[in-house]
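Subject: complex prediction, re-run

Hi both,

The earlier run crashed halfway through, so I resubmitted it with identical inputs.
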Amino acid sequence: MSAMARRRFLRLAAGSILPGALAGCDRLAASEPVNDTLRAAQFLSQRAQALVTGRDAMAQEFTEDDIADVFRSNGTAMPDSRLYRQLLADRFRGWRLQVGGLVARPAQYSLADLQAMPSRTQITRHDCVEGWSVIGKWTGVPLRHVLALVQPRPAARYVVFHCADPMDGSDVQAPGSTYYESIALDEAVHPQTILAYGLNDEPLPVKNGAPLRLRVERQLGYKQAKYLMRIDVVERLENIRGGKGGYWEDQGYEWYAGI
Amino acid sequence: MRLFYARTMPAVAAASGQRLFYRHRLPIRVMHWINVFSFFLMLMSGLGIFNAHPHLYWGRDADFDAPLLSITARAGPDGEPHGITQVGPYVFDTDGVLGASRVKGANRQSERAFPSWATIPGRQYLATARNWHLFFAWVFVLNGIAYVTYTVFSGHLRRDLVPRKDELRGIGGSLKDHLLLRHPAGAAARRYNVLQNLAYLAVIFVVLPLIVLAGLGMSPRLDALFGGWVDLLGGRQSARTLHFAAAFLLLAFVVVHVFEVIVTGLWNNLRSMITGYYRLPDDHHEERTP
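This time it finished cleanly. Structure:
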């Protein structure tokens, strides 16, 4: 190849092929089928991580000295919901956690009921999907205790958490947009998976999910559903809301948030 | 099995006076290009992930008031975001590239740590960046494991990558040659030079394992592997910082690598990584001999 042809080629490469490739790359990045395919890698990660760590492996726990002065709130800090405002004004005395779905004994619990159950306190690190971490001390009832009370049926595979906070406007504008999440049953019965009503020895603050939030310590922050209202035990996630198992999952985030 | 055996092609050599030899075997060539492809996808989607929280910290959790690095924006006089980069107490004006830059087609700058031409996707969206990053992480790591396995069992590592004692002694001379852009010719060009060896070994056995380990150290599930192993990296936020730093070390390696590829003969080098055949640069001493 002559020097001139080389220069022509280089100019062509720099001038058109490269931006073209980048633009093509960006179109691929925006393509839903492409991202659906790429996202499937989460199940490979899930299998590999379960294989390496074992089902009951415990997330690291820390000491009192490690607790952050302020536990940062992300997402909703105050649900824009009339029902929630009423519950809050009444200091959650009228609040009940509904537990149902594929269970033998559906039930509802007041905050006092949950606080009377066996409790677990753990100082753990909250890892936001954005990249930051904050350490806090959580107190709550192990989810497996509640599940044992309601007795999931053999077909049960997932636990779904429905929350009070509407995400796409107020409860009047967007009543169907409340936050929701789901986890697999084996994650739900992990000893560190708790329904927390206390943070740093205080009642759970509103900005962190009062009166009750999920702590599932081996996954990222968006799995830790706040403002819990209802827990459903289900067999499949496809027919719930966007079908991907959570508010953010329906918008492209991985359902398995272990990495 | 050897990488550098003199499979000169007599016909070609006779016709042109050039000596082609078979430098890179097929598995190396295939793995090299898979690596190039997945490295750039990892880097660009990684920058997209960084943009979701453009600060780095040291420790177990994030000390929001004392980041090591922040790439942010403040409002300029015209109200448009103005990009700045803070490293510890030092503030640098990086407007237009870091902190705030114009997305193609937009008439205003937007606040974003890395510019859209450097990220996947171009339009900031963390979920998509993660989808790409966590898929190609598998490609990158499996390819890397295959490569290391191959280099060990084929003898490539021992024969070509680990420098000999005499080569190590010549490190000063090799450094001088690099700085003067003097390149080995003739028989000496058959082997990697000592700086090249050390750079490859450092990337393969130090930087790449570090970036993978630090990446895995950010996983809340792998955190549970055994109690507190992430603290060996300095904690999760330190792991994130190390992951980021290692990515830029790799980028620096790639920049130097591509520079050397260009100055030592772009077409010859590209051909050797595509077809396997490399033409030995003429040795001027030999040329003068009648």
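The interface with chain A takes residues 49-50, 52-53, 55, 57, 60-62, 64, 117, 120-123, 125-128, 130-132, 134-135, 137-138, 216, 218-225, 227-228, 230-231, 236-237, 240, 267 of chain B (CB under 8 Å).

- K.
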